[in-house]
Specification:
By secondary structure, the protein is mainly α. Helix content is about 85%, strand content about 0%. The chain contains 3 helices and no strands. α1 runs antiparallel to α2, α1 runs parallel beside α3 and α2 runs antiparallel to α3. The protein is elongated and about 50 Å long. The protein starts with 6 loop residues before the first helix and ends with a helix.
Length: about 100
């Protein structure tokens, strides 16, 4: 019987892929001097990805299994979601403090 990977790991993989695509799009938009509405759209997508980090953190803290592989994947997802969550908070605080 095949078991499903932990939700925290799946959410972390989606968030990591989304942030990589987001940074790539931001690079190309900045290179082409894009309109401000596109940068607002990127900010909105970033906030959506940030909100899904909490789903991954919650799923990682509640997941229980006996299999070693799934425990490791759950820890990777849980720690990855925590790192993305706290890094985003730090970026927001630094941006607010440097805005003055």
């Amino acid at each position: 019987m095949k078991r499903k990977e932990p939700t925290a790991f799946i959410v972390f993989a989606i968030i990591a892929s989304g942030i990589a695509l987001l940074f790539t799009a931001a690079f190309f938009l900045a290179h082409n001097h894009a309109n401000q509405k596109y940068t607002k759209l990127l900010g909105f997508v970033f906030i959506l990805l940030f909100s899904f980090c909490t789903v991954g953190i919650h799923a990682g803290s509640k997941y229980e299994t006996e299999e070693k592989k799934f425990k490791i994947l759950n820890r990777i997802g849980f720690i990855g979601n925590l790192l993305v969550f706290f890094a985003t908070l730090v970026f927001m605080v630094v941006t607010v403090l440097l805005d003055k």
